[in-house]
Amino acid sequence: MHLVGFLQAQNCTIYASSWRHPDSRTDFLRADFFQEIGRILEAGKFDLGFFDDRLSMPDRYGADHVHTIEHGIRCVKLDPVVTLTMMAAATSRLGLGATASTTYYEPFHVARCFQTLDLMSDGRAAWNVVTSLNDGEAANMGHAEMMAHDARYDRADEFVEVVLGHWDAWEDDALILDKASGRFGDGHKVHRLDFRGQYLSSRGPFTVPRSPQGRPVLIQAGSSGRGKRFSARWAELVFVAYHDVQDGREEYAAFKAAVAAEGRDPEQVKVATLCTPVCAATRAEAEDKAALIERLPLEIDALSLLSEALNFDFASKGMDEPFSDAEMAGIQGLQAIRDRVVKATGKRNPTVRDFITGSGRGRPRLDMVGGPKEVADRLEEWFEARACDGFVIAAAAVPAGYADFVTHVVPELQRRGLFRKDYTGSTLRDHLGLPRAAHGDWRPRHAAG
Question: Ranges for the Luciferase-like domain (predicted)?
Answer without folding.
Answer: 57-385
